[in-house]
Amino acid sequence: MGIEIEKKFTVKEISFDLDKYPFHEIEQGYLNVHPAIRVRRQDDIYYMTYKGTPDSSFADKKSENIGQVEYNMPLDKASYEHMVSKADGNFIRKKRYLIPLNEDAFSAEYLEADPDLKEQIKKGEIKIELDVFKAPFEGRILAEVEFPSEEAARNYHPAAWFDEDVTGNRKYSNSQMSIEKV
Question: What pLDDT sits at residue 120?
Answer without folding.
Answer: 96
